[in-house]
Design brief:
Structural class: alpha+beta
Shape: elongated
Radius of gyration: 21 Å
Order of helices and strands: HHHHEEHEEEHEHH
Mean pLDDT: 87
Low-confidence stretches: 1-11
């Protein structure tokens, strides 16, 4: 990205949103990692992430790979509803593709959007703990991962294809696990109430 585009991106980001995202980045990183980052890298990363997250429909996963500021680096950005194992899934996908992670920032934000998905407000987890978030705010995961740049455009496309498939599998699993658990609990209750003619140790193992 040119200096002019970086300046334009920073200027376009509303200061209150930029400040809130900056605070969330700071909270999500260990102090020693935060001290190693330069101000330019932080400002550019937050501004670019706000540009990506400026509009997101409910249920939509925003995934982007762009050139990084450091030589030989690329930046992978993901914005989605927060869900279990989201960070793990992204890291495992990157490892499967042989991508080396240089930096991982993954704040969970409480976000307010209008009916068209436009970003109106965001609040970091620390602010939510200090004062209960408004009911209109939704939890979103904003991940920013600096990796070694893929060797070619084809490798970059293959990486994004792999990650989209992994994230789609995760979404299906998260949507289904509650129903599966309820079904299992119901089956366990039926085993306890109407046990079949089996040995007690077999029934106990089945319930477990």
């Amino acid at each position: 990205m040119s200096s002019a585009r970086r300046a334009s991106a920073a200027a376009a980001a509303p200061p209150r949103l930029l400040a809130a995202l900056l605070a969330a980045w700071r909270e999500s990183l260990p102090s020693e990692e935060w001290r190693e980052l330069d101000a330019h890298t932080i400002a550019q990363g937050c501004s670019e992430q706000l540009r990506l997250g400026a509009r997101r429909r409910r249920g939509q996963m925003l995934l982007r790979l762009r050139a990084g500021a450091a030589p030989g680096a690329a930046v992978l950005e993901l914005i989605s509803e927060d869900m279990p194992f989201l960070v793990d899934t992204l890291q495992m996908g990157l490892a499967r593709a042989g991508a080396s992670v240089r930096l991982l920032v993954h704040p969970v934000l409480y976000v307010q959007r209008d009916a068209r998905g436009r970003l109106l407000a965001l609040q970091g987890a620390s602010g939510a703990r200090a004062s209960a978030p408004e009911p209109s705010l939704r939890r979103e995961s904003w991940q920013c991962v600096q990796i070694d740049a893929p060797e070619s455009d084809a490798a970059a496309r293959a990486l994004l294809t792999l990650l989209r498939a992994a994230l789609a599998d995760l979404r299906r699993a998260v949507a289904d696990w509650g129903a599966m658990r309820r079904e299992l609990l119901q089956r366990c209750a039926e085993l306890a109430k109407h046990p079949p003619p089996l040995a007690p140790e077999v029934l106990a193992e089945s319930r477990e």
